[in-house]
Specification:
Strand order of the largest sheet of chain B: 6-7-8-3-9-10
Order of helices and strands of chain A: HHHHEEHHHHHHH
CATH superfamily of chain B: P-loop containing nucleotide triphosphate hydrolases
Shape of chain A: globular
Radius of gyration of chain A: 18 Å
CATH topology of chain B: Rossmann fold
Structural class of chain A: mainly alpha
Strand content of chain B: 15-25%
Number of domains of chain B: 1
CATH class of chain B: Alpha Beta
Radius of gyration of chain B: 18 Å
Strand order of the largest sheet of chain A: 1-2
Shape of chain B: globular
Helix content of chain B: 25-40%
Order of helices and strands of chain B: EEEHEEHEHHHHEHEHEEH
Largest interface: A-B, 22 and 28 residues
Strand content of chain A: under 5%
Low-confidence stretches of chain A: none
Helix content of chain A: over 70%
Mean pLDDT of chain A: 92
Number of helices of chain A: 11
Low-confidence stretches of chain B: 5-15
Oligomer: heterodimer
Structural class of chain B: alpha/beta
Largest sheet of chain A: 2 strands, antiparallel
């Protein structure tokens, strides 16, 4: 039972981290390699909020807002001028990732940081005691996934987003301002990354390079899932589950590579759609 | 701020009384190669203007440049007196231009209904407008929930026209709508476009290779050959068909 809860809660964490990357990949058709840096920014925003004695729930909103603002700045100043050159956007976001991480290192140093958790303690489920925070995180992941799905499936905004994913030029021909769609999506993706960083803060050590393994795992999961939220949920459960099992019964270092290795194998043998 | 362009009716706009569309010395192309070499034409409001030509003569390039999908290398595009030469496509649509592209221009994986909904910025306007359009396209009402990619070729063309008309444009640009269709379907589309012009005063620019279809519908025509207009006039003038066909023979 504990193993099962470890798997689903870890899948929830992966899902929260990867969903912003997937939205940006689907609509902007770029892999945002600064996603890990946005996650780090969210974690440090929470650390700062803790130092200021702000409520940890408020810190989540602060992280979300900081991520959105940073995303807006990056989209307008870096990505928009090179939007037509996909390879350059990948290199630019990777460069941006390095710059953000170095700036954080300069200001906060390399040492671990800690932040207050919004929820502490454990709950008992059928005689089993489990971290309440991890369970709440799972619920938040499900809520975020459900909210994005509902918006995409039932609203005009979601319909426009799906149209841009399918054929951007055709969407422009119907009067859709695809530049605005790209801007809003990138801001949302950066905000979600930052929120993910804030949510992970009580569970992980906060340091400038903490975003790298999360970025790599999220990147591989998005490549495996394509632009489907359902596929992303399944991929996080299966590959995240495999990572938990390998870490528990095998070697934690090997466990850290599980998602990457399995993703490479899946991509190698998958029949092209 | 909305992702979908807001509607701005043309009535009372700056250029009332002038041509609906005026193109002057337009040069455009892809990469290093020029496709249009200084095209000029003028389309009066409430008329149908046919641009005829064989494959590869620049007809689609002309429409794509007018619509802002391609940036012109030189020249000017005016809509009712507004210089729209470098306007983004969505802004042109906001100003009352609808574009019916050549083929495969529906969202294949979306339903017929969703394809139609995308034509309007506000979903609250949809039902009243759809009812008006559905009277002319009953098949789309029947297949409203069906995936658009499963419609027949003729039904997909119906969907393209219906989607364009839902936006209530003042200028409709139509790219080879008759291509690959059975004569009965071509006749039906001709009827729909003629009715729409009569009912709403819509200005239509048709790009066509089908001379019969184009000349039966249009008031004015031009023949585009290797990126240049080589023949133009009123369809009702004597000898129009011969003048057109001499440029279209292989």
């Amino acid at each position: 039972m504990t193993q099962f809860l470890d798997i689903v809660t870890f899948a929830g964490e992966l899902f929260i981290v990867a969903i912003g990357l997937l939205l940006v990949f689907g609509i902007l058709k770029i892999i945002n390699l600064a996603h890990g840096a946005f996650l780090v920014v969210g974690s440090y925003a929470t650390v700062v909020a803790t130092r200021l004695n702000w409520d940890p729930w408020l810190a989540l909103l602060v992280a979300l807002a900081v991520g959105i603002a940073l995303g807006a700045l990056v989209e307008r100043s870096v990505l928009r001028p090179i939007a037509a050159r996909p390879l350059d956007t990948i290199l630019a976001t990777w460069g941006l990732n390095i710059v953000i991480v170095q700036l954080i290192t300069l200001y906060f140093g390399r040492q671990m940081q800690f932040a207050k958790s919004a929820i502490t303690g454990a709950v008992t489920l059928g005689g089993l005691t489990y971290s309440e925070y991890r369970l709440i995180l799972l619920l938040i992941a499900v809520a975020v996934g459900a909210m994005v799905t509902v918006v995409m499936r039932t609203t005009q905004m979601g319909l426009i987003a799906r149209a841009v994913i399918m054929n951007e030029e055709l969407a422009q021909g119907l009067g859709i301002n695809t530049r605005l769609v790209r801007f809003v999506t990138f801001c949302l993706g950066a905000g979600l990354a930052s929120l993910a960083g804030a949510l992970l803060t009580p569970l992980v050590s906060v340091h400038p390079l903490m975003g790298v393994p999360w970025l790599i795992n999220a990147f591989m999961l998005v490549l495996v899932a394509g632009v489907s939220l359902g596929s992303l949920a399944v991929a996080t459960l299966l590959l995240g589950g495999a990572q938990v099992l390998v870490s528990s019964y095998g070697n934690p270092v090997l466990g850290g590579l599980t998602i990457v290795i399995l993703s490479v194998v899946i991509l190698r043998f998958r029949t092209p759609a | 701020m909305t992702a979908h362009a807001a509607e701005t009716p043309w009535v009372g706009s700056k250029g009332d009384g002038g041509p609906a569309l005026r193109v002057r010395g337009l040069r455009s192309g892809y990469g290093e190669s020029d496709v249009l070499h200084g095209v000029s034409l003028s389309v009066e409001p409430r008329t149908i203007y046919a641009i005829l030509g064989k494959n590869g003569m620049g007809k689609t390039t002309l429409l794509k440049t007018i619509m802002g999908f391609l940036l012109p290398r030189s020249g000017r595009v005016e809509l009712l007196g507004y210089d729209v030469t470098r306007w983004p496509t969505y802004r042109l649509v906001r100003h009352g231009v609808s574009y019916v592209p050549q083929e495969k221009s529906i969202f294949q994986d979306l339903s017929v209904g969703d394809n139609l909904r995308l034509a309007l910025p506000k979903s609250s306007d949809f039902h009243s407008r759809f009812e008006a359009v559905a009277a002319r396209f009953p098949v789309l009402k029947e297949r409203f929930q069906q995936r658009a990619g499963t419609l027949s070729g003729g039904e997909q063309k119906m969907l393209l026209i219906a989607r364009a008309l839902l936006a209530r444009p003042r200028l409709l640009l139509v790219d080879e709508i008759s291509e690959g269709l059975q004569p009965l379907m071509v006749w039906r589309l001709r009827e729909i476009l003629a009715e729409e012009r009569g009912r709403t005063g819509l200005t239509i620019v048709l790009v066509e290779q089908n001379v019969d279809f184009a000349l039966a519908l249009a008031d004015h025509y031009a023949v585009l050959k290797l990126g240049t207009i080589v023949e133009a006039g009123r369809v009702s003038d004597a000898g129009t068909r011969e003048a057109v066909e001499q440029h279209l023979v292989i």
